[in-house]
Amino acid sequence: MSTIKSILTIGLMGAVATVGAQTTYEKDVAPIIQKNCVSCHTPGGYGPFSLQTFNDVYKRAKFIGHVTQTRYMPPWKADPTFSRFANERFLSDDEIATIQRWIDEGLLRGEDNSESPRIIEITDEEPADLVLEMAKPFELSNNGIEDYRFFHIPTGLKKDTYVSKIEFIAGNKRYLHHSRVMVDTSGQTAGIDGLSEFDPLSRFFQTQPLMDEFLYGWVPGNLPVTFPKGIAKLIPANSDLILNIHYAPSAERVTDLSAVKLYFSKNPVEHLVKSFYIEEEDIANPPFIIKAYEKPTFYVSKTITQDMNVVSLLPHMHFLGKKMVALAITPDNKEIPLIRINDWDFNWQSTYLLQEPLFLPKGTVLLLVAEYDNTIENPLNPSDPPRDVTYGWNSTDEMMNLIFYYY
Ligand code: HEC
User: Fold this and answer.
1) How many helices (H) and strands (E) does the chain have?
2) Which atom of ligand 1 lies closest to the CA of 221?
3) Pick from 3, 138, 156, 224: most CB atoms within 10 A?
């Protein structure tokens, strides 16, 4: 179906192209790249090279044609034919076809209007109220391994605080793969500063319940979470933040000093954002064990016992996760698609912000299906040979979560 659609689209665009002008970089391609790629592909940005100028794009044109056609870039994991989000970023079939046409017609530059400014500078429209930085720069190991570390940052907040926007600022854009921000009110994590997830101590504090296990999930290029007006998240007095950071393999001696920015609510708070979790213990077919050489599917059907207005969704699995789909069935049998990820990638986890808060009445059934692959066919399998895997925070363990922010 989608192939037929894209052939039709290309056919149509082709017909238009012969009547109209030729496809050029300046006229047709640059706007697509500027809008969808340069937020990460700048010098020193999250992407491995810059795509700001004609030469940058010209010399990688074939590669760009490939990664856009396969939809590897820009990274966006939620299937847009299933559900749409406020923070989505993906190319339309037409935009992908335009890039292909530009390549096929010989990479013409067209009239140079590079004088006109078009780099969209992402500047803070408002300063953060509280910037919480890691205690000191963390030196990454230079032996080329994936590294997972915990950091503790006291908030210093003396009173309960309402937060309307949360942002994560990666210190080292090149090597920071993803980060998860948690909130602890027990004080038990003080002093954890670069603790490896393989340190036995990390096992200990994972057994203690946290105030908020997912304040924010960040991947390169992720936008801050901004709650609608009058809606805020509560960070209790004396809370500590815990960062769980995944560093990509590095061969050089580099450091990271990341920070979390909190923006306090300036409007009267009408609703508090709460978290609702679908987790491993909800599965209808326990136990949550992913046996070596198996590809199990787990199912959840969970009824909500109060009305919910959902503002965002955060799916979470580790390297054995392959697919996740979630739907809601309202008491009057309306089926609402929530999110579908057809090719889960641990490295590209996002908070998906709904376009409008979604009202789900009490009695709505949430259905979640997650598929895992613990065979050698899964190139991301961290264990070779595969071993039995169950719940745990470590990247070599597994999780099955869908976290709803709601009010
Ligand atoms: C959210 C940030 C982000 C955006 C937006 C983004 N990229 Fe990337 N891109 C990356 C990162 C990070 C990598 C390196 C990691 C990887 O290859 O998975 C990458 C890698 C690439 C690669 C190399 C792939 C490889 O296999 O080595 C190409 C080509 C590329 N991007 C092109 C694009 C184009 C074209 C766009 C826009 C249509 C785009 N990117 C948008 C972050 C981004």
Assistant:
1) 6, 22
2) 1
3) 138
Q: What CATH number did the domain enclosing 287 receive?
A: 2.60.120.230
Q: Same structural domain for residues 359 and 243?
A: no
Q: Whose CA is nearest to atom 27 of ligand 1?
A: 48
Q: Are residues 181 and 300 in the same domain?
A: no
Same domain for 293 and 404? yes
Is 115 inside a domain boundary? no
For residue 111, being part of any structural domain is answered with no
Identify the three-state secondary structure at position 27: helix
pLDDT of 273: 92
CATH number, position 245: 2.60.120
- Do the domain assignments include residue 45? yes
Condensed to tens digits (0 to 9), the pLDDT of residues 208-250 reads 777 777 888 887 767 788 888 899 999 999 999 999 999 988 8
Task: Determine the Cα–Cα distance for residues 186 and 154; give it in Å rounded to an integer.
Answer: 11
* Probe target for ligand 1 pocket from 32, 34, 59, 67, with the most ligand atoms within 8 Å of CB: 67
Whether 170 and 96 map to the same domain: the answer is: no
Pairing of strands 365-372, 289-290: unpaired
pLDDT computed for residue 43 by the predictor? 84
Residues 278-317 have pLDDT tens digits of 999 999 999 999 999 999 999 999 999 999 999 999 999 9
Domain span at residue 252? 124-269
Structural element, H or E, at residue 12:
helix 2-19
To test the ligand 1 pocket, which listed residue (29, 37, 64, 73) has its Cβ within 8 A of the most ligand atoms? Answer: 73
According to DSSP, the β-strands at 231-235 and 271-278 are parallel
